[in-house]
């Protein structure tokens, strides 16, 4: 606006000297015609005052001359303030020219505030109150419902009257914008959560498949290579896992697995530990051969797995012909199944096993339980073999 006024003033000043009042008025009007105001100019006028006369320089402006003449303006010096015209408060500026001639500009507070708001990226969400000497000249009628209110003063600006600005975000608009942001954030979060959940679940599911491929030797679970291991690596890891958990010859659990399991049965109340071995197994190996001896061991384990299918049990091989069974259930069922190995035949050779059974409730520690089962096994062997001792 200042640049616009300067351009108009330069045009007039070039013709200033020697002009009569009528010629001066004509020069002003022509200057405003030749230099149309930009969109950001928010002043009304100017008006030229000479004693009791008032003239508007813009034909399209509302004629406020009567109101200006009837107001107590300090026309003899440059000043500014607030004036009430047709019930609307305006900021006025008085600029003395010469010979009792004054130039008066009016600023519509509403238009002024609208333009101020446009200067800020989020100005459309701003609410503003403007005061002078404690009196409101403009208000968005929001009372005290401002968020992050800020107060500014124009006391240091000599080209504006002393005004106080209170502006901030309307609480209603602020809550509305926050609600929209929260909803958008929730939607985005849901999309991100779903995407990452699907990704993490996919990794977790693939890990489970590869775990099953390793522990259960089910390579069909891994299609076209794995995420963590390829097919060849899975086979290698499976072989290592299987060797640590199972006996490679018979498929029974290993001695290490037994040491991990025996600790868990103490205090269960219905568990039993059985130690057994094949009678005269050294004689079988020495006279029939180790391969035949292996067949005997395989037969024993397969027999127990078949007969005890559906029962809660595990078979362990300690080494050679020494085995153990951890069983939970009725003792009579265990004895009935074990009797099938007190006299059996493999490849035309009569074989037998001796057993020692100890109830978990008879002991308070795993070591005591193992010692009791071992003593009963040796009692069976020393008492003629091919028998079961359980008490």
UniProtKB/TrEMBL annotation:
<dbReference type="GO" id="GO:1902201">
    <property type="term" value="P:negative regulation of bacterial-type flagellum-dependent cell motility"/>
</dbReference>
<dbReference type="InterPro" id="IPR000160">
    <property type="entry name" value="GGDEF_dom"/>
</dbReference>
<keyword id="KW-0472">Membrane</keyword>
<keyword id="KW-0342">GTP-binding</keyword>
<comment type="pathway">
    <text>Purine metabolism; 3',5'-cyclic di-GMP biosynthesis.</text>
</comment>
<dbReference type="GO" id="GO:0043709">
    <property type="term" value="P:cell adhesion involved in single-species biofilm formation"/>
</dbReference>
<dbReference type="InterPro" id="IPR029787">
    <property type="entry name" value="Nucleotide_cyclase"/>
</dbReference>
<feature type="domain" description="GGDEF">
    <location>
        <begin position="269"/>
        <end position="391"/>
    </location>
</feature>
<keyword id="KW-0614">Plasmid</keyword>
<keyword id="KW-0812">Transmembrane</keyword>
<dbReference type="InterPro" id="IPR050469">
    <property type="entry name" value="Diguanylate_Cyclase"/>
</dbReference>
<protein>
    <recommendedName>
        <fullName>diguanylate cyclase</fullName>
        <ecNumber>2.7.7.65</ecNumber>
    </recommendedName>
</protein>
<feature type="transmembrane region" description="Helical">
    <location>
        <begin position="173"/>
        <end position="196"/>
    </location>
</feature>
<dbReference type="InterPro" id="IPR033422">
    <property type="entry name" value="GAPES2"/>
</dbReference>
<keyword id="KW-0547">Nucleotide-binding</keyword>
<dbReference type="GO" id="GO:0005525">
    <property type="term" value="F:GTP binding"/>
</dbReference>
<dbReference type="GO" id="GO:0052621">
    <property type="term" value="F:diguanylate cyclase activity"/>
</dbReference>
<keyword id="KW-1133">Transmembrane helix</keyword>
<dbReference type="InterPro" id="IPR043128">
    <property type="entry name" value="Rev_trsase/Diguanyl_cyclase"/>
</dbReference>
<dbReference type="Pfam" id="PF17156">
    <property type="entry name" value="GAPES2"/>
</dbReference>
<dbReference type="GO" id="GO:0005886">
    <property type="term" value="C:plasma membrane"/>
</dbReference>
<dbReference type="Pfam" id="PF00990">
    <property type="entry name" value="GGDEF"/>
</dbReference>
